[in-house]
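The data are quoted verbatim here:
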Amino acid sequence: MTASDKNNGAGIQTLEELRETIDEIDEQVVSLLGKRQKVVKQVTEIKKARNLPVYHPSREEDLISKRRSQALSAGLDPNFIEEAYRLILRQSRVEQTQRIGQKAVFPGGVILIVGGKGEMGRYFGRRFDEAGYHVRTLGSSDWPDVSQLCDGIHAALISVPIDRTNQIIGQIAPYLPNDAVLADITSIKSSPLSAMLEAHKGPVIGLHPLFGPTTSSLDKQIVVATPGRKLAECQWLLDQFTAWGSVVLTADAHEHDEIMDIVQALRHFASFAFGRFLYQKKINLERTLDFTSPIYRLELGMVGRLFAQDPSLYCEIIFASKQRRDLLKQYIQSLQGSMDMLEGNNKELFLGEFEKIAEWFGPFSDQAMRETTFIIDKLIERF
C-alpha cells in the first residue's frame, strides 16, 4: 500500500475501504435485481392468466427513455444505462416467455407436424409439446398410418422442403378434419398458400418463421403470417407464437415473396458468391483476420455462418422460384455493368454513382451507422 492509499487523518478513505464500499453497492444492485425479478414473476402470472403478450414495445421504450433521463441527472452515460437496461429487459422477456410458453393457448389441442422428423419439424414439435399440446409427427415412412395420424387433429403444420411442399399439401389434405387448421412454414408463400386453399376447405394460413432450428428463444423473433381462409379460426395458432414471445407480422403472400427475394435469396446468394470467390483465390482466412477491421470480421462472419449450415436449405431458398432466379441474374448483370468503371479507372463514375445511391438510401444510412456502430463495439469487446 502506498502512502497515498492510507488514511491521512483528513477523512480520506483508503483504497481498501473504497473497494469495500463498492462491493456493498454491488451487493445492493444484485439484491434489487432479485427484487425486480420477483415482481416480474407476478406480472408474468397475470399475463399468463389473461393471454397477454410478453413483448410490450411502447412500455419498454418508455422505460428506457426514463432511465436515460435519470442517468443524465445522476451524472452517468445514458448510452451505458440504456445498454444495461436492454440486457435486463431481454432477460426478463426470456424468463417470462419460458413461463408463459408452457401454457397452451388451445388446451388439449392436437398438432400434426408433417415433416416432423426434419430439423424445423423437430424444433416446433418440441415447442408445442412443452406448451402442453398433443404432438404427432408424420415422416416419409409414416404415410401408411396417415388416416390415423390425422384423426381428431386441430392443426397440421407442413414442414417439408420447398420443392415438395405443394405435393405434400395435396397428399395430406383429403385426410384432414374439415375444421383443422392447415398451415405451412416454408419461406415462399404464394404457391403453398394457393395449394392449401385449393386442397383444403377449412381454415388455412401461411406461416414463415424468420429464424432457424438453432434459435434458443423466440423472444422478438418474427413470424410472418399470410392469411388464407377463416383467419378467426387460425388465431389461436398465431396467439401461441405470441405467447412464445414472437412478433407476428401479417402480410399479403405476394408482398412477402417479393420482400423475401431480397431479404433471403439475394442476401444468401451474395454471401455464397463472396465465399466462392475467396475459395477460388485460396485466401488465407486466418491471416486476413490478423489484419481485420470489425466490419470485415462481421462480413466474413456472416459468410462463414452460411457455409456452416445445411447446403440443401439454402439451395431451396435461392432456387425456390423463377422470380428469384431472374432477380439473381439481374444482380449478376448489375455487377458486370460495373466492369467499365474498373476497366477505365473511372473514379468520377464511381463517385457519381456513390452519391446518387447515398441520396436514395436517405435517412436509413444514419440508422445503419448507429446500429452497425453498436455491433462493431460489441465485436471489439469480444475479439
